[in-house]
From TrEMBL:
Keywords: Monooxygenase, Oxidoreductase. Residues 7-55 form the ABM domain. The keyword RNA-binding does not apply. Transmembrane segments: none annotated. This is Antibiotic biosynthesis monooxygenase. InterPro entries: ABM_dom, Dimeric_a/b-barrel, Jasmonate_Hydroxylase-like. It comes from the Bacteria.
Length: 80
């Protein structure tokens, strides 16, 4: 379902990208990037996404949290 939602999200207006990481126990974090609060709101209302959210609540996740944040700046090091 995660792959299906990633593909669907990538087709939505305002989608910028997604990052996801899981540990050996299955715990993890997924971050999706959008160009506006309106795009986030539209994704939240997407019918297929709503079905996946409900399935997640009922079957896959014991708990979860959602944070909506604004990225002001990004930089990284190549580690060399």
């Amino acid at each position: 379902m995660a792959d299906k939602m990633d593909k669907l999200a990538s087709q939505q207006p305002g989608f910028l990208g997604v990052e996801s990481v899981r540990d050996d126990s299955g715990s993890g974090i997924t971050i999706s990037y959008w160009d506006s609060l309106e795009a986030i709101s539209n994704w939240k209302k997407n019918q297929s996404h709503l079905v996946a959210q409900e399935k997640g609540k009922q079957e896959w996740y014991e708990n979860y949290s959602v944070k909506i944040c604004k990225v002001e700046r990004e930089y990284s090091s190549s580690g060399q």
